[in-house]
Amino acid sequence: MNKYVKTVLRLFLVFGVLVFGVNYGCKLISDKRSSLRNLSANGINSEITEEYNSSGKDIDTIISEKYNYWLSEYGSNAPERILFIPVEEENKDIFYVSADKTCAVCAVHGRNGKIKGFVECIYKADDHVDIIIAANAVILLCFLIILGVVTYIHFAVLSPFRRLSEYPERLARLRDIQKLPECKKRFFGKYIWGMNMLSDVLAASSKRIHTLESQRQTLVSTIAHGVKTPVSNIRLYTDAVRTGLYSGKGMTVDIADKIDRNTLKIEELAEELMRSANSVTDGYDIEIKPFHMEELADIIRKEYKDRMKLKRIDLSVECSSNAIVESDKYALYRAVSQLLENAVKYGDGGGIKVRLSREDEGLCISVRNRGELLPEKELPYVFRSYWRGSNAADKEGSGIGLYVVHETAKALGGSAAARRIEETSEMEFVIYIEKA
């Protein structure tokens, strides 16, 4: 259940209990007050009846004489006024009537049992009803104010913050992600501006690193190839010495062996330089964890939906299964992201299709785009480092993107492949991770 709904329900519960408590408490106080007033009315009536029958005094006189005594005796429960209503008709029925909580009527009987009249005790009106109404109004007002504050905090602060709190992690893991939409709200405007600036700095730094890496590997490759030629010549000389071709010049087999050992060391160095030239490090560590295939599809949709809308390119992301796979979700996203960037760069804008499927206990990711097809003879070379196809002459790039895709798939225990689909004029790139 949504946290906001839970919070509102808790508020309803707390204020509901508060309203019930206030009303129930006031009711108990009111009932107790009424009970005490009834006791005072009965006591006053008993005293009037006893005095009347024993002294024969007029009842109005008795009331006038004893009123102050009753005020001191019953305190706040004493009547505000006491009236006597004489009757002439004979009536043997004795009854106690409480017309309402501010009036009590009791019968006064003579010695012969006849009713002489009624004593009406009039009490000061209670303000419990006004207190209850005022208390309920205050509670309702407090509830509405707190509900408004909670609603404002939820939608203006908490909800945007939850979305923003995910951005730094996504930026750290994915780097090349969609920027946060600009916002002029005082809570997050500056934060969003700063995060977008950080995203630009990271993107520029990443591009710079790739450029420097390209230059470094070019330099290493040049040195490696340059060293191999003199090494080959040295080996030829040592072979000549060993066969006695230069024996007349003082060359010995021992010297030849030493030269040979040095040439082997140079060859090993050259091979190491070549291996270094063919390696790519993008700064990410592989983390194999279980995840649902649909999670990867959702990341792709979320990061590229708005981008493709701006470029007016139809993007379709399909996931045929929501099976759990064991792999690196973010590494796969980066590989797919590279394929999507290439699809935008080299496609004709007619649409891009991404499909995730479960095949032979493995994870298969296919990216198709319409556009110029690579010649069949170039397909075996597309995943080589710094290799660029015949369609890349006027396009910016270093030729390292697909190589990174291939190496990522390889690091995850899979492979990458490319093919032409001439029937639909599409290029398809496939990442297959075995036993994912």
Provide a brief overview of the structure.
By secondary structure, the chain is of the alpha+beta class.
Q: Can you characterise this structure?
A:
This protein has three domains: 3-128, Beta-Lactamase (2-Layer Sandwich); 190-277; 289-433, Histidine kinase-like ATPase, C-terminal domain (Heat Shock Protein 90), CATH 3.30.565.10. The protein is 56% helix and 18% strand. The chain is built from nine helices and eleven strands. The chain has helices spanning 3-55, 59-74, 128-165, 167-174, 189-242, 253-277, 293-311, 329-346, 401-411, and strands at residues 81-86, 96-100, 103-109, 115-122, 289-292, 315-319, 324-327, 347-359, 362-371, 414-421, 426-433. The strands form three sheets. It has a five-stranded mixed sheet, covered by helices on one side. A hairpin with a 2-residue loop joins strand 2 and strand 3 (103-109).
* Alpha plus pi helix count: 9
- Provide mean pLDDT, rounded: 79
> Over the alpha carbons, how many angstroms does the gyration radius reach?
48 Å
The biggest beta sheet is recorded as:
5 strands, mixed
CATH class label of the largest domain: Alpha Beta
Please count the beta strands (DSSP E, at least 2 residues each).
11
| Low-pLDDT segments, ≥5 res | none
- Tell me the overall shape: rod-shaped
Broad structural category: alpha+beta
The CATH superfamily title of the largest domain: Histidine kinase-like ATPase, C-terminal domain
Strand order of the largest sheet: 6-8-9-11-10
* Run of helices and strands: HHEEEEHHHHEHEEHEEHEE
